[in-house]
TrEMBL record:
Ranges of residues in domain Mur ligase N-terminal catalytic: 22-95
Matches recorded under SUPFAM superfamilies: MurD-like peptide ligases, catalytic domain, MurD-like peptide ligases, peptide-binding domain, MurE/MurF N-terminal domain
Official protein name in the record: UDP-N-acetylmuramoyl-L-alanyl-D-glutamate--2,6-diaminopimelate ligase
Catalytic activity: UDP-N-acetyl-alpha-D-muramoyl-L-alanyl-D-glutamate + meso-2,6-diaminopimelate + ATP = UDP-N-acetyl-alpha-D-muramoyl-L-alanyl-gamma-D-glutamyl-meso-2,6-diaminopimelate + ADP + phosphate + H(+)
HAMAP family tied to this protein: MurE (MF_00208)
Post-translational modification: Carboxylation is probably crucial for Mg(2+) binding and, consequently, for the gamma-phosphate positioning of ATP.
Domain Mur ligase central: 106-309
Family, per entry: Belongs to the MurCDEF family. MurE subfamily.
Cofactor section: Mg(2+)
Binding site for meso-2,6-diaminopimelate: R381, D405, N406, P407, R408, G453, E457
Gene3D superfamilies on file: Mur ligase, C-terminal domain (3.90.190.20), Mur-like, catalytic domain (3.40.1190.10), MurE/MurF, N-terminal domain (3.40.1390.10)
Function: Catalyzes the addition of meso-diaminopimelic acid to the nucleotide precursor UDP-N-acetylmuramoyl-L-alanyl-D-glutamate (UMAG) in the biosynthesis of bacterial cell-wall peptidoglycan.
Length: 484
């Protein structure tokens, strides 16, 4: 790519130097190498403009900067952009050049990771080389790696997409987080379809109101999807209607799924302990399927995933058949084992109110004894959700154990206290390992334990340190001990 190729991405800049070869693109001055274009972004902590001199000294040949940036001291060309983050994403897409031919993205407060994993599995079942990208990392044929963000930084994202395409991956499903959408991380991805799962309380430390949180998510439909493209929308959520309106307003082909769905309609569902039987109507035909996963919410996720797959060329019979082989994403209502008396122990990633509500409701029908829940809330994140989650746990579980979940820079006891004010009668055990052990020790026949909040995570962050910690490992060790 030449510098001149940036011309239609930025709003203004010098026409000179157009033939210079671009060696790379980054928004982090520390990653600049000779020949790179540096995007100076205004961030939540600092302003990239203050690192321009540093970027130039490392060899940057041009800078993408906000429209009002001061170029007076600059020794390399400056390209101005009304939205530098968007310019960075489009430039990255062009620089890396390739992406899997069929890309879809899913947004929503809960279910994104599960839907992305399910779409990958449906495509794979249909014989397509497929990948998924999100909170639990990248999964593709011969590849499974952890990533740090739900929606990667655009430069990393396009490097990855080009790598996947070069490796023969033709289909990829990715998660679109509200941060990612707000920060234009997905601009430049060629989307064939997009989906919405639901909206609940999340990230109220980042978005000022729930409406602004919803509109950040709506960028997926209103700005990133091509007109006329398919939008798969879960129909049974309080925010479904507003989402349908936004997608229709953007000229998309809205396809609803769920009990109120028109594209895929859930006619009947029967929950069993580890699976559920569902009747799903597609084009007037009822498909009876056995979904090998527990939880009402997994039916919702499976239908959204099937909607995405069917909107990207998979025939309905193949998609429905694939649902019978789905594996849950790691750490999503994940059965770790059972006590000798048969009480199941689940690890789940519910770290926000609606998720906790859904997961506790999901285990109730097959619990003849008590539902026990172990959970905490992360430090340096939305404080408002703490009492809400305390109330939900108290209402839906019989025994509530409040513990620590990544306290980060906060005082762990203070976080627990903020949950406990709405959870009278809850047991407080800060040490997560001990909390899990005590919970398993108290399980009797017919009881169910849900260890919520960390799911696939393998670390506990206290202060600036992250030590290895896995709910799966702890639960397995405690189960082994209890059976001795
Ligand atoms: C709050 C937030 O979302 N921050 C993201 C944002 O950083 P920022 O632009 O605000 O960064 P900043 O620190 O203010 O710096 C401004 C600019 O100066 C640059 N800089 C800084 C220092 C320096 O020496 N040189 C330099 O050039 C930085 O690279 C940056 O471009 O853009 C960065 C690049 O894309 C992200 O890595 C970073 O994610 C941080 C690490 C993060 O923790 N994000 C979380 C909250 C997040 O995005 N989560 C979502 C949702 C998860 C969920 O589903 O629940 C996700 O998609 O993962
Ligand atoms: N459709 C759904 N409705 C409500 N809750 C759900 C749904 N799907 C999953 N959950 C709950 O949310 C948790 C996280 O699910 P998942 O990882 O699929 O969502 P996500 O949107 O990717 O979340 P995150 O933004 O935290 O990455 C699950 O462990 C479960 O407790
Ligand atoms: N991406 C989410 C993950 C939260 C997981 C939970 N274990 C916590 O640490 O709060 C966040 O950063 O808000
Ligand atoms: Mg996720």
């Amino acid at each position: 790519m030449k510098l001149g190729d940036l011309a239609d991405i930025v709003s203004s800049g010098p026409a000179l130097h157009g033939e210079a070869i671009v060696a790379g693109i980054t928004s982090d001055s520390r990653a600049v190498q000779p020949g790179f274009v540096f995007a100076a972004l205004r961030g939540s902590k600092t302003d990239g403009m203050s690192f321009v001199a540093n970027a130039v000294s490392r060899g940057a040949i041009a800078v993408i900067a906000p429209a009002d940036a001061d170029a007076s001291t600059l020794t390399v060309p400056m390209f101005r952009a009304a939205e530098p983050r968007r310019a960075l994403a489009l430039a990255a897409a062009r620089f890396y050049g390739r992406q899997p031919e069929t890309m879809v993205a899913v947004t929503g407060t809960s279910g994104k990771t599960s839907v992305a994993a399910f779409v990958r599995q449906i495509w794979t079942h249909a014989g397509k080389p497929a990948a998924s990208i999100g909170t639990t990392g990248v999964v593709a044929p011969g590849r499974a790696e952890y990533g740090s963000l739900t929606t990667p930084d655009p430069v990393e994202l396009h490097r990855l997409l080009a790598e996947l395409a070069a490796a023969g991956v033709t289909h990829a499903a990715m998660e679109a987080s509200s941060h990612g959408l707000d920060q234009h991380r997905l601009d430049g991805v060629h989307l064939a379809a997009a989906a919405f799962t639901n909206l609940g309380r999340d990230h109220m430390d980042y978005h000022p109101t729930v409406e602004s949180y919803h509109s950040a998510k709506m960028r997926l439909f209103t700005e990133l999807m091509p007109r006329g493209g398919p939008a798969i929308i879960f129909a049974d959520d309080p925010w479904s209607e507003a989402t349908i309106a936004a997608a229709r307003g953007a000229g998309l082909d809205v396809r609803t799924v769920g009990r109120k769905g028109g594209f895929l309609c859930l006619k009947r569902v029967e929950h069993e302990r580890r699976r559920q039987r569902a009747e799903i109507e597609v084009d007037g035909v009822i498909h009876e399927i056995v979904l090998p996963l527990a939880g009402d919410f997994q039916i919702a996720n499976a239908m959204v995933a099937a909607g995405l797959a069917m909107s990207t060329g998979i025939i309905s019979a193949t998609a429905m058949e694939a649902l019978e082989h789905l594996q849950g994403a790691p750490g999503r209502l994940d059965l770790v084992g059972s006590t000798e008396a048969g009480a199941p122990v689940y690890v789940d990633y519910a770290h926000k109110p609606e998720a906790l509500e859904h997961v506790l409701a999901a285990v109730r029908p097959f619990t003849t004894g008590r539902v026990v829940v172990v959970f905490g809330c992360g430090g340096d994140r939305d404080k408002g959700k703490r009492p809400i989650m305390g109330e939900i746990a108290t209402r839906l579980a019989d025994i509530v154990i409040i513990t620590d979940d990544n306290p980060r820079s906060e005082l762990p006891a203070a976080i627990r206290e903020q949950i406990l004010v709405a959870a009278p009668g809850a047991i407080e055990i800060g040490d997560r390992r001990r909390a899990i052990r005590e919970a398993i020790a108290m399980l009797g026949a017919g009881d169910t334990l849900v260890i919520a909040g960390k799911g696939h995570e393998v670390g506990q962050t206290v202060g600036l340190d992250t030590h290895h910690f896995s709910d799966h490992e702890e639960a397995r060790a405690a189960l082994a001990e209890s059976s001795r």
